[in-house]
Design goal:
alpha+beta; 8-stranded mixed sheet; 38 strands; Neuraminidase; 4-stranded antiparallel sheet; Rossmann fold
Amino acid sequence: MTSKTTLPFASWPSSLSADKVASAAPKISHIQSNNNLLTWVESKPLEGGRNVIIGRSANGNVKDLIPSPFSHASRVHEYGGRAYAFSKNTLYFVNAADQRIYQLDIGKKTPKAITKAGPRFADLLVDNFNNQLIAVCEQHYDGAEPDNYLVALSLDKDNHQLQTLVSGADFYAYPRISPNGKSLCWIEWNHPHMPWDSTQLWSADIEYGRINNKKLVAGAEGNEAIFQPQWSPDNQLYYVSDLNNWWNIYSATKGIVLDMPAEFATPLWQFGMSTYDFIDSHTIACLWTDQAVWHCGFVDIACGELNTMQCTYQSMQAACCHDGSLYMVAGAPDTADEVVVVSQHNNVEPVYSPCRLDIEPDNFAIPESINFATANNDQVQAFFYPPTNSQFEGGDQELPPVIAICHGGPTGATDCSLNLKIQYWTNRGFAVVDINYRGSTGFGRDYRNALEFAWGIADVEDTQYAVNYLVAKHKVDPERCIIRGSSAGGYTVLAALTFTNTFKAGASLYGIGDLETLVSDTHKFESRYLDKLVGPYPEQQPVYKQRSPIHHVDQLNCPVIFLQGLEDKVVPPNQAEMMVESLQKKGIEVVYVKFPDEGHGFRKSENIIRAMESELAFYTDIFNLKQGA
């Protein structure tokens, strides 16, 4: 074994550059099966964040299906999601630039717009029986809240007429048609609920392109969050529900299919998310998470027996059955996301890997799952990443600085899939703790509800307890604790820096400083989100002021870096700007990095690089670190 060179933590030279991080791991999502063609969406950071629909034929050939500059992306709910569908050899997709639906005959070079500019679309579904395209539609108006409804778009080549199928609710998702073409299902929900709080599953007859005999299938009591309704090959309706605390799979006619303390769903931030599919009318292929680690397997519907597949992957999503096998996007702590096929004979293998990592295995920090007691002795899970470099190590008498990461949402979760943005830090000698604070998903509805009316309190406490746990274990330096987070995680960052003294520096990526401004200046999907996290507004205005860092800047006494997209509609730039101005007036060291061409999250490689390098330079300056190459 080659001996390592001793250098101070957080100053190690690293070959894992920001450029390599930005270009090495494109995101894959939304797998679909269309006859002999398997398709998915892949991001292209080097092409300005363009999302390309990829096709893999039966012989294994892989190619882009939509030409540049077209990009698959919906802006419904601002977060979008799956927005493409096939009808034999014709592809329909939503184009990012104008939000119109385009038609592209496979083999031809130029897509053709079949909707007018204005409405936004998502969750596209081809209804071959009525020669129409069904979709979620969002219509925006000046000075008023958008309308959401289900629509049908005629695929008559001479008349692409748009008509409303279902309306009246605030939100819709998952329109799905039965294999025999006779029934349509969907989920809907209303303010002030989010889709992980309370949704309803409906079905109806669909004939001659019209909806009749609407029927409420599940969610009548209002205390049930329903996810991914899906028809089996024999026209039976299935769905995921958290009625028993855990998101389990149900049959609309027979009840729960598999009762187990694990989650077969994720929060519905984007359209088209999928955790299960049907191999045939007797077998469900599925993904589930237990203690933040994902698993896959097959369920015998008749007896409710689960056959778990053994594999090294620990992160899984986008389940789709194709040609008798399960396909999914999967990754591991040292493996970038790839398209993987799983057969029922316990054979798991990759079929497409867009990322070729030029990184030595010894440079990967492998996370340790930790559990620790927090306030009220509640148990919280997190992943601890030790500083890791194949050539360097810290001195025996030194402890590394730690970066505590707060995931977004806050109704979200972190897992242990390869995250090069974490490896960027650990390879330089930082420790990282990635926390599934109370309110995170994957641990049951009760745990998710633990953040009810406690945002800015429970999540902040859990970040403190995570760091204190590591300090007590002598794994990190208590004098060099950093907290970073994006979006809702950015709010946790600012709240922790304002209301506690645990952290010595922070990074807020498009985070929230003023809850009142957010609640009055955000988009429809999240406009009532804080009703449950903080309290109804304006009735609870004093609570909003009490928990908003902007009103307590006098208590914030450590350096902060803000990174903000100026086109952000979810967390508008004024959130960062108000905090920056207040800290500058107080004389606190603050850095504000603006990205004029980015929205909520950074998509373009040059911006990802700039963001990471700016953050590293900030920590280097704050803690007087001597950075290697």
